[in-house]
Amino acid sequence: MKKYMLIAIAIIAFSLNAQQKMGAIKAGMMFPQACDGGFDLGIEYGLHIDTNLDVSLSLDWFKKEFEDKDAKGEYEEIPGLTADQLVKLSETTIYDFPLMVAVTAKFPYSDKIKWFATGALGAEMLYASYNTFDGDEMDEKSELAFDFNWRLGGGAIYNLGQSSEVFGEVAYHYSKPSYEYEDEIGGTEYTLEREYDMSGLLSRIGVRFFFN
What is the pLDDT of residue 17? Predict the structure, then answer.
């Protein structure tokens, strides 16, 4: 799977000089399973194959501070922890970065309006900051988690001119980055796992430009 993703990314990168280019910026809300919804920002750069087909690379950014209930549940099984310690151990900040290859097909509705459908595959890097025990002291740590991802969605486009358009999209995103870590509590070492289910709905608006 990794090999095919790298090949797809390389093909797009080498083809950028042969087609009309397109770039986009979009912003909105993401609602993953792991936490409450939050602000999401995305950029795209790719090929405008023709008036009804785009192929692009996209990169998104999502940040959220929240209480990791799954991690809290694991710590509740460990004896000797107070309620305040459980809250502190479950406090988490994540930064999520999906990198995807996307194909977008457009379906004309009128001179100015088009519907579109989009599908994407890629990889996801998630940076997580959280608290653990280092002996008997609380310590802040960070980890990187990775996973493959996919996305399906659609929306509407309004043409501003020959080289620009605005759009709104709704999509479903799937990924579950995870990692394991060691935590020493009361002289006993535990192996724990944190998985962040970033699957959920995504709703954004954006602007797209076309250039040579």
Answer: 55
Domain layout of the chain by residue ranges: 2-211
Q: How confident is the model at residue 172 (pLDDT cuts 50, 70, 90)?
A: very high
DSSP 92-156: EEEEEEEEEEEEEEEEE-SSSEEEEEEEEEEEEEEEEEEEEEETTEEEEEEEEEEEEEEEEEEEE
Q: How confident is the model at residue 141 (pLDDT cuts 50, 70, 90)?
A: confident
**135 pLDDT higher than 70:** no
* Choices 3.40.50.300, 2.40.160.20, 3.40.50.2000, 2.40.30.200: CATH for 2-211: 2.40.160.20
